[in-house]
Specification:
The protein is of the alpha+beta class and about 675 residues long. The protein has 24 helices and 15 strands. It has a domain of about 210 residues. The strands form five sheets. It has a six-stranded mixed sheet with strand order 1-9-10-8-7-6. Helix 11 packs across helix 16 and helix 17 packs antiparallel against helix 21. It binds zinc ion.
Amino acid sequence: MKKILMLMTATVLLSCSGEKKGKEDNFNFRVEQFADLQILRYQVPGFEELSLKQKELIYYLSQAALEGRDILFDQNFKYNLAIRRTLEAIYENYQGDKSTEDYNQLVIYLKRVWFSNGIHHSNSEEKFLPGCSPAFFAEAVKSIDASLLPLEEGETVEAFIEKLTPVMFDPSLYAIKVNQDPNVDAIKNSANNYYGENITAAEVKKFYGDMLDPNDATPVSYGLNSRLIKEDGKLVEKVWKIGGLYSPAIERIVNWLKLAENVAENDKQKQVIQTLIEYYQTGDLKKFDAYNIVWVQDTLSRTDFVNGFVETYGDPLGFKASWEAISNFKDLEATKRTEIISSNAQWFEDHSPTDSRFKKDKVTGVSAKVITVAILGGDCYPTTPIGINLPNSNWIRKDYGSKSVTMQNITHAYFKAAEGNGFNEEFVWSDTERELIKKYGAMTSDLNIDLHECLGHGSGQLLPGVSPDALEIYGAAIEETRADLFALYFTADPKTVQLGLLNNDDAYKAEYYRFMMNGLMTQLVRIEPGKTIQQTHMRNRALIAHWILEKGAKDNVVELVKRDGKTFVVINDYEKMRTLIGELLAEIQRIKSEGDFKAAQHLVETYAVQVDPVLHREILDRYEKLNLTPHRGFVNPVYEAVKDKKGNITNIKISYTEGYTEQMLRYSKDYSSLPSYNFKP
Ligand code: ZN
């Protein structure tokens, strides 16, 4: 659960750090906009300066990062691949009138399916519906050659249409991908594909609970890399590995990894890649732990990557991991900042406002760096985190530390794409706050990501005997709350100025203001009217902001003020706000360390889920007028291997011209090895 997403908001930060003027002036960060989505493009500064070997390595790892795309589609929902392929077949072969609204809506639907890696919204987890009519869909399917459709064996086109139509058009069927409603069965009511039919949450908890040996200090992440099904009434795991489920895609990933292994920068990195290959070959979760340990230890390589079944946000019970990948290389200049933070990790741990019983006596191996992302794949594409802290295994983090990264070329692209969009003028209270944000926003935002990833997740410890899964469906939101609070608390500490991380004692106010504005108001643009907050990071930000608003009310610390019928956040006392952040951090750490499920449930349900419908409507209306979209994702650059006559690679060329549709269609052609149905329902 260690991944940070962009703080919603298109907040404009003019003084973006690490900015290279000149070359990027003509760079088009905005690609296109449709439905509630905007597609952006990121740059990969510094790629040209890498050695040929490093470029080659990035190239192979990037290929490996694209090969798992189908896995994610299938993990998200059992009909995703069939639906995507059907829509693509129509898009490429339809001979009818393409000027109709129905056709236009079908294309938008396809673009949304690409964006969310399936038919459920990547943010709300809810199924979105096609804007075209079912009759048009049926007509379009029938109009193309049946051999282009992903029919099952012996299936007629009519039966195929009859099967998919309710799946796509009926809002009550497979309505939500990850159901976190505490009043329903989380497994039965989630549309994801991690579990077979007729399995209950209680059965899953028991199945994996029985595997856990309370005396095992180094447990594997049970259930992480398999689909759990019932066979003859018995629960059985279908493991994702070579020779197992998703084998065709994993074989291709491994082929690229083998090429990468040959050009590894050093023996450590070679070992990392080898161990990952062995894990993919065996599906053995002990191998996965071994891989994570060597991966954490590989701190000297310039290049790095993530590739595998990593994050468990897609499973309401947090066992199953979605497939994701990133390849990247270190931003040497910006990494100096994170090195200052990690070399002072113990100071931060010691000065955290949490109870000493929950603190680490010795903070191990916090290695932090700022990276330049070279490719996004799987669950990191096209929506991406802006920071990552891995591995997720608690005991590995405790014994070996973790690696934390800030993805600065991505945040940079967000900021550049948002310039001049009118957001700050509309939502920020006054010029004072706008000035603060303009002056210090970029600096404090970067620092917050660093602190969140590099120290926040790594701080604190569980009391002996407390299960890391004790908080169940509230675990992820509480964990993100903890990391955010840690970052917010220390951003305002004079130590950050002493260490040269910030250049002014008031700088932190920019982040405090942005955070409260986002948590109380502007992140609501990502939610549809009438809906509640489901996404983990949105929940944690709402939790913090609403708790501070309530607890600070008697001292008027933060208030919501109306001006000309519009609501604004006003912060009256920044210092008291920091005190409250400290208090909440202490409580959240206690909840985590003691595994206090009841308290976690109370905080999340009270502060993090509900939405004020009147304020929500107002924010949506104001946002709409700016013609901005609430969700954003990226297209990748294209890498091309240049070869000499003998077939040796002489260079890797990078280009930024590929469009969104072009890229998605190419990926569906070049990196698509799985059958449309990977099991018998
Ligand atoms: Zn996080």
